[in-house]
Design a protein that fits this description.
Elements: E1 2-8, H1 15-25, E2 29-33, H2 42-45, E3 48-63, H3 73-77, H4 99-103, E4 109-124, E5 127-134, H5 141-159, E6 163-170, H6 174-180, E7 185-190, H7 194-209, E8 213-219, H8 225-237, E9 241-246, H9 251-257, H10 262-265, H11 269-285
Parallel strand pairs: 1-6, 1-7, 2-5, 2-6, 7-8, 8-9
Antiparallel strand pairs: 3-4, 4-5
Helix pairs in contact: 1-11, 5-6
Length: 296
């Protein structure tokens, strides 16, 4: 079993569009949407939820009013200023560290689990998918990413799937680290802009630190050929495989609005480019098994 994570150093590079294209081409896989802070792969794959479960990712303090004598010790020791003057805990400010429970002389403060979101196992027209939704202002997206990946691996192992395709989050933070740790290969989707090349370098450095085979895909390469050449030179200098380039085409937006991958929606040049990139990816992963029959 192989795991491929598609990531980007910044948002808006087309990472999910590429993931959906791969999902429509790969014949034997499980999909995992690990962009739990802003999941959107479901907008293209239209999953039917088969199983759902609450995710408790953090804890917060609560004050037992019948025991509290308002001595103020909890306010004194709380470095996050999460306890108001009328001794009510602000859940957003509280980090769940528990220091207030330790110092409270009357043991009037406890900790309880916060409902932080949900995770789902679903079926799509391209096969099984594990995805999640983190609540507003909730923490521990990295923990939820790890849970999504774990469930995807269970499904793959139980059903003999040879590949897990992971739609990772943008950036270089904790959820990104959770989405790439231990995978077989990472595909970095970038774009020919100054911020695009800057953030690509950061996430490539992150993947390199984990000693993960890294490939780069340049999306909308024809919008700025000068910066595209800079990205190509960077990959050549650093011995990073260039998986391919995708041209700018408004048909991609049309496909998203229609709730389809661009492979299903159109046979324009960009679809052929995605197929070529997929061939390069399967070669890098050592997978050869053809494309699945598309269902429209």
């Amino acid at each position: 079993m192989k795991e491929l994570t598609i990531i980007s150093g910044k948002g808006g590079t087309g990472k999910t569009v590429v993931t959906a294209g791969f999902a429509s081409l790969a014949g034997d896989k499980v999909m995992a949407d690990c962009d739990v802070d802003a999941a959107d792969l479901h907008l293209i794959l239209w999953p039917t939820v088969k199983y759902r479960e609450n995710f408790y990712g953090s804890r917060s303090a609560f004050i037992k009013r019948e025991l509290c004598n308002e001595c103020g010790k909890c306010q004194e020791v709380c470095r996050f200023e999460a306890i108001s003057n009328d001794f009510v805990v602000d859940k957003v400010s509280c980090e769940g560290c528990g220091v207030c429970t330790y110092f409270c002389p009357r043991k009037a403060i406890g900790l309880r689990d916060n409902l932080s979101g949900e995770w789902f196992i679903s079926e799509t027209r391209f096969g099984p998918m594990v995805h999640a939704k983190l609540g507003i202002a909730e923490d521990n997206s990295g923990k939820l990413v790890a849970l999504v990946r774990y469930q995807a691996r269970l499904i793959a192992e139980e059903n003999g799937h040879q590949l897990i395709i992971i739609d990772g989050p943008p950036g270089i933070g904790c959820p990104v680290i959770a989405s790439i740790a231990g995978v077989d290969s990472v595909l970095v989707v970038t774009e020919p802009t100054l911020s695009g090349i800057h953030d690509m370098k950061r996430v490539v450095n992150l993947a390199t630190r984990f000693k993960i085979k890294t490939l780069v895909l340049i999306n909308k390469y024809d919008l700025n050929l000068v910066v595209t050449k800079q990205i190509e030179d960077y990959c050549l200098t650093n011995r990073i495989q260039l998986a391919g380039k995708l041209s700018f085409d408004t048909v991609i937006t049309e496909a998203m609005v229609a709730g389809k991958s661009v492979i299903e929606y159109s046979d324009r040049e960009v679809s052929a480019e995605i197929r070529k990139v997929w061939d390069n990816i399967t070669g890098a992963l050592g997978l050869r098994g053809g494309e699945q029959s598309l269902q429209t």
